[in-house]
Amino acid sequence: MNHVPSAASSIDSSGASSISTALRRASACPALARIVAARDGGLCRIRLPGGVLHAHEAAAIAEAATLYASGVIELTNRANLQLRGVKAGHEAALTARLLQAGLGPQTPDSTPDTIEAIDGIRNVMISPLAGRDPHALCDTRALAAQILVLLQGEPRFAALSPKFALLLDGGERLMATDHPHDIWLSAMPVDNDEPRFAIGFAGYPSLDAGSALATVTHTDALALLDALLHTFLDLAGPDDTRMRDLLALHDAHTLLQRAADRAGIALQRGPQVDAWRRTPTDATFRLGAHRQRDPQRWHAGGQPLAGRIDAATLRDLGALSTRHGDGSLRITPWQSVLLPDLATNSLDAVLAGLRALGFACDPSHPYAAIVACAGSTGCAKSAADTKADAQQLASLLTHDRLTSSGIHLTGCTRSCAAAHCAPHTLLAVATGRYDLYQRADALDESRFGVCIARHLSIEQAAAQLNHPARTPPDA
Ligand code: SF4
């Protein structure tokens, strides 16, 4: 493969590659070794490859969150965890404890600088049910692991933004296909040919035809991704951090072909690619119990309120999985938790255990509909305490047709908690007061949709949401 010599990499006397900080992009994103200040203390983000968390890792995080932070743990919309309230002066001890538990990037160079640089770019999204979903077209786990090795092993990729993200979709029924990614690969149904991925940029595999630029064989996918990342870095200026920035300057097909030529890979284009569309997904499969590909095994999942739990809950979740499953958890991009590989006779106990820990397991429960950002207790930008207001809202909602992740409470327009455009958005305007926005339909990709009511209290917002047919007062 024809790699461009990297200005951001170097080889030390031991032969190991190391990261030059000169070209690394400055970032305010929290990471394992980059504790970012927030209103409630430091914020530490723990990236979990594939959203996988083993019980011993959950126990280590719970212990570290109690010792060195507030004990508040958030599940993120990229299927990661973050610890809030990291105590001043305890940042290094927290990072060291998490690394000791095996939660950092896998690299022979464990200097803080390298850990910080490599950790931030490990953004590969796969389904929480990769390898287990009976409706999947392929098992993406092995390729996802190879992509992580690629990201961690090529020093030049440290120049990627920590927000630069890849989606690897195996065609699972439970898949976050509404989260925009810089590069996405989506499995296509297999006919007599070699299995292929549809590929696209700055978006997601769509239910509409025309979202894919081309297809690539499973065999060539890794080499193409490698070439694409190098091509991105070749062409990106200092302010071009995301693929959408590059697409403002370069045609997507030209960019993809440049990468394919670099890797010596033949892409497939034409009517079959143009007509391809992603089969529908269903996020409600993250909740309750469902049979896996192996008919003797099940997965069960639950939703905490607004993606927030405490340290004891995380530890107890790990113990629940050890008792009844394979000792692992899946953190999902819907800010929920899933336990895989359960025997049929353990389902009642697992669902009861999840409910006892405060998780909702029914898709019609208000917890399944609500997402909320950190709010004013954690973020100076927030006009309201969105987490507390989410709790009050959940207690008032009665409408059982609320769709999954259907109500988004956000403290400001940055919209940190929701990567997707929710059907309803409550935008904080003052303490306990929100403007209510409604998305017109599934094709409405405006930020929040149309404002249908202003300056609502939570009681008024609940009344409006419980009666969606009511004529909007100022639409
Ligand atoms: S959406 Fe705004 S208020 Fe909420 S956490 Fe993000 S920046 Fe803070």
UniProtKB/TrEMBL annotation:
Signal peptide range: none
Gene3D superfamilies: Sulfite Reductase Hemoprotein, domain 1, Sulfite Reductase Hemoprotein,Domain 2
Chain ranges of the Nitrite/Sulfite reductase ferredoxin-like domain: 39-100, 290-356
UniProt cross-references to Pfam families, sorted A to Z: NIR_SIR, NIR_SIR_ferr
SUPFAM superfamilies per the UniProt record, alphabetical: Nitrite and sulphite reductase 4Fe-4S domain-like, Nitrite/Sulfite reductase N-terminal domain-like
EC number: 1.14.13.83
Record field: transmembrane: none
GO molecular function per UniProt: precorrin-3B synthase activity
Top-level class of the enzyme under EC nomenclature: oxidoreductase
Keywords: 4Fe-4S, Heme, Iron, Iron-sulfur, Metal-binding, Oxidoreductase
Positions of the Nitrite/sulphite reductase 4Fe-4S domain: 119-249
Protein name per UniProt: Precorrin-3B synthase
Organism name: Paraburkholderia acidicola
